[in-house]
Amino acid sequence: MEQALGRLTRDLAIDLGTTSTLVYAQGRGVVLDEPSVVATRRGPSGGFGEVLAVGDAAHNMLGRTPEGIVVRRPLAHGVIGDFQLAEEMLRTFIRWSAGRTAVVKPRALVCVPSGLSEVERRAVHESTRAAGCREVQLISQPVAAALGAGLPIFEPRGCMIVDIGGGTTEIAVMSLGGLVVSRSLRTAGSSFDAAIIEMLKRDQDLEIGERSAEALKRELGSAVPAALPQRRSVKGRTLSTGRPKEISLTGEELRQALLAPLAEIVEVIREVLSETPPELAGDVLELGIVLCGGGALLPGLDEYLREATRLPVVLAEHPLRAVIHGAGAAVENPDLLPRLMLR
Fold first, then answer.
1. In sequence order, what are the residues at sequence separation of 6 or more whose Cβ sits closer than 8 angstroms to the Cβ of residue 288?
2. Residue range of the domain that includes 99
């Protein structure tokens, strides 16, 4: 019976992130990569009404909506903040990913931050079930990331992963398929954006939106001083007068804004290292720290962390997709799943 069901549907792996959601379909690979954003009509009492757009279409509306339309993120720092909105978003993503030939509801393996409470894990489980999955299992995000990055997590060796996502940074040392020491902190890619926004308000009397901050980070951001001076124009609104304003910003000014969130990440990396058993610490010294996640793409971050920790630091081959590739490997290999899923 189970084999017959398998021919009518595909198991899914879901990397449910604060800023983006990726879905891997069994036998097909990654089939969806969309922003975790929903646009709705404004409902009564601050709630939401009709869903107008999900994913890229909703993300394109950020900062550009008229009265009566709201663009929201259902998750904050890896935690579901709006259960109903998360369900609506997941329902759409699952429908897009399962394929037109799916007759039976799919099963899903969902990646969650290691620091989620039992209540927060249950919210993810229930939202995914309600969104259209007949069975849901959870996997720890850093374990999936390490597996997807090609680390030997099932061997009796210490592997260290630093996964800087949009809403959380996962820092973990693992061995024999399990977490030995792990931390989940809310300083992540969105913290970089927030730091840029606050710096411009404070130093330039300029207000910009989330999308503009993301673009600045991509085009001008760096964790280390640039070899050549860089400069870019930035448009926004003057805080004091409300008028449009354009300024010129240097790469060094932007880098200074990023130093505080970067220092927070380094502090927690050091905490994890200090709690790592000596034998595993020796393995980390040999294998190095592996970086993944969207935040890992910040230029010079590997060099910055190498200097701060005095350890080898390498970027995963596919940093943006390490988590979903690891979860996808578990979906494709039934023997792996019992060893990895959270209970």
1. 160, 311, 312, 313, 314
2. 2-36+73-143+323-342
Neighbours of 135 (CB within 10 A): 12
DSSP labels, 251-320: HHHHHHHHHHHHHHHHHHHHHHHHHS-HHHHHHHHHH-EEEESGGGGSTTHHHHHHHHHSS-EEE-SSGG
- What does the alpha-carbon distance between residue 100 and residue 110 come to, in Å, rounded to a whole number? 22
* Helix 210-220 vs helix 189-204: crossing angle, to nearest 10: 100
Strands (E), 132-212: 135-140, 159-164, 169-175, 178-185, 206-207
Q: Are residues 96 and 127 in the same domain?
A: yes
Q: Which of 228, 257, 286 is the last residue of a domain?
A: 257
76 DSSP β-pair partners:
79
- What's the pLDDT tens digit per position in 272-322? 999 999 999 999 999 999 999 999 999 999 999 999 999 999 999 999 999
Other CB atoms within 10 Å distance of the CB of residue 148: 28
Residues 6+ apart with CB under 8 A from 264: 185, 187, 191
pLDDT digits over 60-73, tens only? 999 899 989 999 99
- pLDDT by residue (tens digit) across 113-148? 999 999 999 999 999 999 999 999 999 999 999 999
Sign of CA dihedral 123, 125, 129, 131: positive
Q: Which residues pair with 233 in a beta bridge?
A: 248
Task: Tell whether 122 and 249 lie within a shared domain.
Answer: no
Q: How far from the centroid of its chain's Cα atoms is residue 288's Cα?
A: 22
Tens digit of pLDDT for each residue in 29-80? 999 999 999 999 987 776 778 999 999 999 999 989 998 999 999 999 999 9
Model's pTM, two decimal places?
0.92
Element housing 128 (H / E): helix 118-130
